[in-house]
Structure formats: structure tokens, C-alpha cells
Amino acid sequence: MTPLILSVDDEHDVTDLVRFHLVRAGCEVITAATGREAIGLVQNRHPDLILLDLMLPDIDGFGVCEILRRQPETAAIPIIILTAWATPDARHIGLDLGAIDYLTKPFSPRELVERVQHLLSLRHSSATA
Length: 129
Description:
globular; 5 strands; alpha/beta; single chain
């Protein structure tokens, strides 16, 4: 089954780059440009993993992460924060709110694909164990 990835970023060049590399790696990628749109897509499509920017035009990434972690049906979806916000405090807050990984922009597409594949394989192996 093809993994479904949600890429949440209001910069279309970032979501285009993410989509290009993850599709080449065998994933299906859907995108959202706002926090509200992301929450709706998560509830309707149930992605296998979320790539989440922090600086969004409505609900910031911290808020999206917190909302998703509070809902039982979305609490276990792995979230990788993918953001230009590179402060240690932002990293700690994101991880404390339930993100499983934190990657700063500019990022290596290869490293992103490797992290996504690693998290998907961990999720798959724990689901089949």
C-alpha cells in the first residue's frame, strides 16, 4: 500500500519540492497551505505521516500539532516539523507537543526522504508486531 503523506506549508515551492522527492520514493503526497486545511485533510484522509511547517497563516504549526494530538483518531500519526524556525526553544516546544522529529529549512531532500521512510517503516513494523 502506498503511504500517504500530508505536507503542510504555505510556501508552494516547498510543498512542490517535498512532493517531487517523496513521490519518487513511492509515496502519495497531499498538501495544505493553512492549519485549518491541514486539520480537515487529516480528519478526512488519515495520512500515514505529516510534514508540518510552524509558520502558517491561520493556526500555527504548534496549534495544529496540539489539536491533532488531543484527538484519539489522529494522536498516533507521526509528525515531522519542517520549518525555517531554527531556535532551540521552537524545537523543544514542537517535540513536547508531540512531533516525532524536527527538520529545519533549508533541508536536504535526501535526508527528508530517509527520515520519512524510517518513520514509516517503524510505524509499519509496530503495527504488524
